[in-house]
Amino acid sequence: MISIPLWLTAEHACSYLDDRRSRSAVIDPDFMLDPQIYSRLIEQGFRRSGDQVYKPYCPACQACVPTRIPVAEFLPNRKQKRCAKRNTQTQVSIKPAKFDPRHFELYRRYQAARHDKGDTADISPEDYLQFLGSSWCDTWFVEFSIVGKLAAVAVVDVLDNALSAVYTFFDPEFSDYSPGVFAVLWQIEQARKLNLDYLYLGFWVKDCRKMSYKNQYQPLHGLLGQQWQPIS
Questions:
Q1: pTM
Q2: Which residue from 71, 88, 202, 211 puts its CA 20 to 30 A from 64's CA?
Q3: Which residues, other chains included, contact 123 with Cβ-Cβ below 8 Å and sequence gap of 6+?
């Protein structure tokens, strides 16, 4: 049994629900992490942002539910089937988690278009890699190209028995192809090909529009009361 030191952050405004305050339990940054240890931590509801591994610690609120898809059981719905058909010619390439100026410019365009960040000049390459990369995790930057143009990049962690969807960003020009949905479908299929059990999708927050979409992937399991169980 490994003893892992935790820190509690100060209370701050919740990123998902406007009327809530939140704090997180964070793994001590001096603790030596690796993919095997992280594989056990993600099973307990932790996620990573860059090298930092955390989970919500809000005793009065349980809105953030860690989620995963048992990939062998996944069945796409009608909308997801249409998305897969639209992307029949989409080319996919797995790249190492290194800085690529094409990825970086796409990330900044995505932030400006989708997250109301009109001026993205203050987003530096260091900020970008500190958010998406990791010095200890086995991570892919997966490129999705449509008609020869870079359309999307999915950041994916490879774990002992699962893939973990870290973040996806895409060119708004290709919104009609639903690249975010297709990236999840591709990760599910890739996990199956690798004989892995799950795709972790991060936190599901029922009353937050940008986080509630995850229950469209069924069966979806959530960590509720320290036990993984279906979310319908």
A1: 0.95
A2: 71
A3: 107, 108, 111, 117
Domains (range + CATH), the chain: 6-64 (no CATH), 77-191 (3.40.630.30)
- Distance, in Å, from the CA atom of 163 to the CA atom of 180, rounded to the nearest integer, reads 16
What is the distance between the alpha carbons of residues 140 and 156, in angstroms, rounded to a whole number?
A: 5
Q: Are 13 and 22 in contact (CB under 8 A)?
A: yes
pLDDT tens, position by position, 116-147:
655 566 899 999 999 999 999 999 999 999 99
CA dihedral 77, 83, 89, 91 (to 10 degrees): -90
Task: Give me 212's structure tokens.
Answer: 């509630």
Q: Identify the pLDDT of residue 114.
A: 78
Name the pairing type of β-strands 65-70 and 149-158: unpaired
The half-sphere exposure of 209 on its side-chain side, counting CA atoms within 13 A, is 2
Q: Which residues, at least 6 apart from 137, have a Cβ–Cβ distance to it below 8 Å?
A: 33, 35, 38, 48, 157
How crowded is residue 85: how many other Cβ atoms within 10 Å of its Cβ?
8
Structure tokens at 180: 């975010």
